[in-house]
């Protein structure tokens, strides 16, 4: 019985301490760590943020917001296509990721929306922009669009985290009924799925 108690105690200690150990071993972000980073760095209210602007000098803006685990470079494969279409693209590292600072603050929706607001201002985007959010970035982009609808041209969500399908009788019928369901969605979907 004592062995079971010790195993449970060790598991609890590991659960509590492991995140702290992992965080303590993370690479510090300072000038040396940022030396070879592409793009530039801007000082925002909660810390330094790594931003990367690419594309033409004129044209519509696209702001790319990455997810929880992969930094700004996740967009590299898509940016060549966007810039080739004439877009100016801004990507950046969320706080705690990539080359951005790791402020010891609560990582809430308001925290990340404030970072996005300040990044857009620091990048000098005066007009509207299209937002592309991936995973957690989709949640941030959505929250920003709700707060600033006049500043968002398009909202593109890729594998959005935290969003779910509103499942009701109409949606189930449309999904499960070929042809008639497609027709109903085309005719009534925009009104009934709000």
In short:
This protein is of the alpha/beta class.
Provide the fold topology.
Layout: H1 2-24, H2 31-34, E1 40-44, E2 47-55, E3 61-65, H3 76-84, E4 88-92, H4 109-122, E5 129-134, H5 136-147, E6 152-158, H6 169-176, H7 180-192
Parallel strand pairs: 3-4, 3-5, 5-6
Antiparallel strand pairs: 1-2, 2-4
Helix pairs in contact: 4-5, 6-7
Largest sheet properties: 6 strands, mixed
- Overall geometry: flat
Low-confidence stretches: none
Which class best fits the helix and strand makeup?
alpha/beta
- Biggest sheet: strand arrangement: 1-2-4-3-5-6
Tell me the β content: 15-25%
Into which percent range does the helicity of residues fall? 40-55%
Number of strands: 6
Quaternary form: single chain
- Tell me the series of helices and strands, N- to C-terminal: HHEEEHEHEHEHH
Total count of helical runs of at least 4 residues: 7
Mean pLDDT: 88
Report the radius of gyration as a whole number of Å.
21 Å
- The rounded distance between the terminal residues' Cα atoms is 57 Å
